[in-house]
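Troubleshooting: if your tokenizer reports a length mismatch, compare your output against this known-good record of 358 residues.
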Amino acid sequence: MLYHLLYPLHEQFSVLYIFRYITFRAIYATITALMISFILGPWLIDKLSSLQIGQSIRKDGPQSHFKKEGTPTMGGTLILLAIVLPTLLWTDLTNIYVWVTLLVTVGFGAVGFVDDYRKVKKRNSDGLSARQKMLWLMLIAGTAGFLLYFYQPYPTTLALPFFKGLSPELGLLYIPFAMLVIVGASNAVNLTDGLDGLAIGPTIIASGTYLLFAYLAGNARLSNYLQISSVQGAGELAVLCGAMVGAGLGFLWFNTYPAQVFMGDVGSLSLGGALGTIAVITKQEIVLVIVGGIFVVEALSVIMQVASFKLLGRRIFRMAPIHHHFELKGWAEPKIIVRFWIISIILALVALSTLKLR
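Known-good structure output:
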């Protein structure tokens, strides 16, 4: 909005030419998101507390979590506001990639909101059924994949890191592939959200990493130099990524151990969906496995646990997702959280190295 209001006036006021630069708008989208979080955060937490929208704790979970019963949840509403509002303020709103990403972010957030609301209403940890949730997530992700596939300037190829010039054309298979990446990323972040600040930390790191990927993909000269896929217009997603970084940092202020509020599914599903969509648009889908390595390990630990129990009748981990396994081994919650953050930073650096390792 500000871009459309102020940039056209740059001929009369030369200082407004700065709105042309994605880097400038990404910085201020980050700051705006952070300010929204700081201003609305305390009010939202008080509101959630007064409405008795508290977290229900699994009875088979670690005993240390029982004291968290009743902590305000659905704080992901704050994250959504802090992402959407700065994005609308600072991006070029004629950009289709911005709208596709917002469609997934808000759509997944709505599914998470309904899921969280049902949990609060029933006063237990059961919300939407897995089938209902997956159906809606796939429908929204499929719509995003459909829009991208039929947007002619957008390349429907698969970029493979470490291999120069190897980008197979997926054709119509691109739509289910995009669905897989987006829904998979969303569920992986959702599974990671089990300790105070555990999910939001790696999300901030991944968002910052994809801010750079989006900027490079949208810059024809730089993408050609680095020999990565060039996606005209993808640079605007750097502004949205900036908003995600700011929203994440602002939420972490209240979510850090011991948490004053939990994000709930409204936050984890929307953040994962946003990351997956940005990864698809910037043609860095495979690299998301590296950047979001923590999310991948968390999801795999659940899959392995279920498969092992059904096939062999015994568990691999003391409890899944894997962060609970370390809790039951005696690791303090802050130690698990910070160590997972450190691993996320290392993985982000490895992912960035793929830009030169060709």
